[in-house]
Amino acid sequence: MKNKLCSLLALVALASVLLASCGGPAATPAPTPVPPTVAPTSPPQPSPVPPTPTATPSASATPSAPRTLTVMTHDSFAASEDVLKSFEQANNVKLNILKSGDAGAALNKAILARGNPLADVFYGVDNTFLSRALEADIFEPYTPKGVEIPAAFQIDKSGRVAPVDYGDVCLNFDKAFFQQKKLTVPQTLEDLLKPGYKDMLVVENPATSSPGLAFMLATVAHFGPDKFLDYWKQLKANGVKVDDGWEAAYYTDFSGSSGKGPRPLVVSYASSPPAEVVFAKTPLTDAPTGSVVGEGACFRQIEFVGVLQGAKQPDLARKFVDFMLSVQFQEDMPLQMFVFPVNLQAKLPEAFVKYAQVPKNPATLAPDDIAKNRDAWIQKWTETVLR
What pTM, to 2 d.p., does this model score? Predict the structure, then answer.
């Protein structure tokens, strides 16, 4: 019995040894952990955190350089510096005003550059040259936004140019002269043929002057294409003087201007009387000149703006067209270029309200008629009046 018990105990001990040799984790002490080797140049990194929008500068955060918008126009273009700057700042743009001679010369340059335009916008073509511009197809269609323009100014039915301003070419008279001589101021074109007005009128050559052309067209509209030359023959017999340009006629020969010339009647603009007040060296309480605004005695000029085909900045060009028709720009024009705004929401300056006269029925001709006959009319006028 004792031997059997010993044998059993021996078997149990043997089994325990065998179980221990199988590697049971609880029976074998765990080895001391060894920390992993870490390279000194690779310190532990925190979990990545997405950057906030301001943490890393982006391309959109850097202000872009202003683009350049080129506006081609005649030499008479003018606008207040702060008005133009407001457009530049609002659109991140730099305006380049490209003055290119008188209206006719500027248009010729624009037509010659068709397809590779010198500018993005063209301003200053008027109704006497409009058909030439449309036939040359230099403008892309665009209808201004946010403004209502009276139908009377919307001559271009194709929508390629928008009217911006208008002015009336009229006879101007020297108030002091007629008061001192106790003469009645002529009221119509026919009045100018009366002997009492002999040697009193100075006009401009229609071949070299925009107001000269407008006045000739007024006579075409009033008397008709077949009879206007008869009128000019009589005007010549009554002593009319012809100067090449407006400056010579107004500032040299006209008695009502600073030049104090010998003639009290001149072809000028309905806006000339307020200009005399605005630019007077000493303050005036009344304009020294007036305008003859009788039936058909004036010719209305309308100026247009358009986006040139092939413009490098067409989006900005369209914005500038809208800008020219805005109240801000329209109210700036009268005392800058002495023209009237087409936007009826624009208020006129006091000088215009007091001293400018607007004819109720100015002479007009269809742009197509002008385009077809202008050169022939000028040639016939030249042969009749200058030779």
Answer: 0.78
Q: Where are the domains of the chain?
A: 65-166+302-355, 167-299+363-385
pLDDT at 315: 97
> What pLDDT, on a 0 to 100 scale, did the predictor assign at position 104?
84
Three-state SS letters, the chain: CHHHHHHHHHHHHHHHHHHHHCCCCCCCCCCCCCCCCCCCCCCCCCCCCCCCCCCCCCHHHCCCCCEEEEEEECCCCCCCHHHHHHHHHHHCEEEEEEECCCHHHHHHHHHHCCCCCCCCEEEEEECCCHHHHHHHCCEECCCCCCCCCCHHHCCCCCCCCEEEEEEEEEEEEEHHHHHHHCCCCCCCCHHHHCHHHCCCEEEECCCCCHHHHHHHHHHHHHHCCCCHHHHHHHHHHCCCEEECCHHHHHHHHECCCCCCCCECEEEEECCHHHHHHHCCCCCCCCCCEEEECCCCCCEEEEEEEEEECCCCCHHHHHHHHHHHCCHHHHHHCHHHHCCEECCCCCCCCHHHHHHCCCCCCCECCCHHHHHHHHHHHHHHHHHHHCC
pLDDT tier for residue 61 given thresholds of 50, 70 and 90? low
CATH number of 167-299+363-385: 3.40.190.10
**Percent over 70 (pLDDT), the chain:** 84
Query: What confidence score (pLDDT) does residue 38 get?
Result: 40
Query: How confident is the model over 21-47, as a mean pLDDT?
Result: 43
Domain 65-166+302-355 has CATH 3.50.50.60: no
Fold equal for 65-166+302-355 and 167-299+363-385 = yes
